């Protein structure tokens, strides 16, 4: 096996890392259907939930929309209620 093939094999099987509420975690590969929605397990590597598995609808390959993710900042106008 060539060196490049070894690198590609490593990244193909490596756990995908993410951040949840500012703390680092990695996807476990577990998927559950909860209340009719698809949820992905993330094992937390940092913070107060370190070692615990949390569940999110943000998949490892999903594109993140910054306007819907408060951790990435909202750049648009915040909608105001007309009371």
Question: TL;DR of this structure?
Answer:
Helices cover 13% and strands 34% of the residues.
Please explain how this structure is put together.
The chain has a domain at 16-62. The protein has 83 residues and is mostly beta strands. The N and C termini lie far apart (67 Å). It contains one helix and four strands. Helices cover 13% and strands 34% of the residues. The protein has a four-stranded antiparallel β-sheet with strand order 1-2-3-4, with no helix packed on it.
Average per-residue pLDDT, rounded, comes to: 76
Order of helices and strands: HEEEE
Instruction: Count the E strands.
Output: 4
Q: What is the SS-derived class?
A: mainly beta
- What is the topology, as strand order, of the major beta sheet? 1-2-3-4
Query: What is the percent of helical residues?
Result: 10-25%
Largest sheet: 4 strands, antiparallel
Point out poorly predicted stretches.
Answer: none
Number of DSSP helices?
1
Tell me, what's the shape? extended
**What value does the Rg take, in angstroms?**
17 Å
Strand content: 25-35%
| Separation of the first and last Cα atoms | 67 Å
């Amino acid at each position: 096996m060539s060196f490049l093939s070894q690198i590609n094999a490593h990244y193909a099987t490596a756990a995908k890392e993410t951040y949840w509420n500012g703390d680092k975690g990695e996807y476990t590969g577990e998927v559950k259907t909860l209340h009719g929605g698809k949820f992905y397990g993330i094992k937390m590597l940092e913070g107060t939930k370190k070692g615990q598995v949390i569940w999110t609808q943000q998949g490892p390959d999903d594109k993140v929309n910054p306007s819907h993710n408060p951790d990435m900042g909202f750049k648009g106008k915040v909608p105001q209620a007309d009371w």
